[in-house]
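In this supplementary section we document a worked example of the pipeline. Step one takes a protein sequence of length 114 as its only input; no multiple sequence alignment statistics are reported here. Step two produces a three-dimensional model, which step three serialises into structure tokens for compact storage. The input and output of this example are shown verbatim.
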Amino acid sequence: QVLETKFIEAYVALMEQLASNYAYATTPPKVISVCGGSINGLDPCDNIQKAIDSFNSDRMDGFEGSYVSIDSDDWSTINKEKNGYLGCDDHYAPNGHAVLEGDIVDGVKTVMGW
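The serialised model returned by step three reads:
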């Protein structure tokens, strides 16, 4: 629980720093968090969503955090060893990135208003 709380607090601080860095923008940029990494995979996803909820709570500056994620079945598929989806140090190879992109592109388009 302590690690989760620290993670959420640090993630919110990161988002707040981004908002501070772009406070001058006439139109605040979109803040999109993508959950779908290799190695620890989907483990942080729930806490990322909690951090976004905290970041979005009672904002008056126009910034809003959004969340997109890889499908859990796709994550399991592309993170199996020796399957062509992983590259060095078990990070995604181009094929793995293509699967992640396929899962998140519609959510990103929605957030962006495209």
